[in-house]
Write a structure and sequence with these properties.
The chain has 4 helices and 5 strands. It has about 120 residues and is an alpha/beta fold. A 5-stranded mixed β-sheet has the order 1-4-5-3-2, with helices on both faces. Helix 2 packs across helix 3. The longest helix has 17 residues. The radius of gyration is 14 Å and the shape is globular.
C-alpha cells in the first residue's frame, strides 16, 4: 500500500463514493491503472488542536495497518477523514466500523464520472 500525498489525488477521491462512520468518513475512487492501493489521511482543524489532530491521524493509520488488505479493492484510492469521535472511540469498534464501511463501498454503484477518470 502506498500513501496519497498530493492535493489533486485527495480531490479526485473526494468526488468518488463515501461512507460515514462515527469516527471517520471513508472516501474511495477506482483507478484504471495497475498501481497499488493508495491511502490518504486527513483531519480538519475543527477537530481540535494539532496534538489532537495528530492523535486522530495516528489512530487512523493504525486501523489501516491492522486491516486485511483483501478487504480493499485493488487499483483504488482511499481517504480516511477523521472526526473528533476518533479520539475516544474504542479501537476495536473503529476497526469493525472500517471493515463495514469498506464492505458498503464495494456495494455502491460506480459513478458515471468515475468511469472516465
Amino acid at each position: 500500500m502506498d500513501r496519497l500525498r498530493q492535493r489533486a489525488d485527495f480531490l479526485a477521491v473526494a468526488n468518488g463514493a463515501r461512507v460515514t462512520s462515527a469516527a471517520f468518513v471513508v472516501q474511495s475512487r477506482r483507478r484504471e491503472d495497475d498501481g497499488p492501493i493508495r491511502i490518504g489521511f486527513t483531519v480538519t482543524r475543527k477537530n481540535g488542536t494539532a496534538t489532537e489532530r495528530n492523535r486522530i491521524r495516528r489512530r487512523l493509520r493504525e486501523l489501516v495497518k491492522r486491516l486485511d488488505v483483501i478487504t480493499m479493492r485493488p487499483h483504488s484510492d482511499y481517504v480516511l477523514v477523521g472526526r473528533r469521535a476518533a479520539l475516544n472511540r474504542d479501537f476495536t469498534i473503529m476497526l469493525d466500523d472500517l471493515r463495514l464501511a469498506l464492505r458498503r463501498l464495494d456495494r455502491q454503484p460506480r459513478k458515471p464520472h468515475d468511469a472516465t477518470a
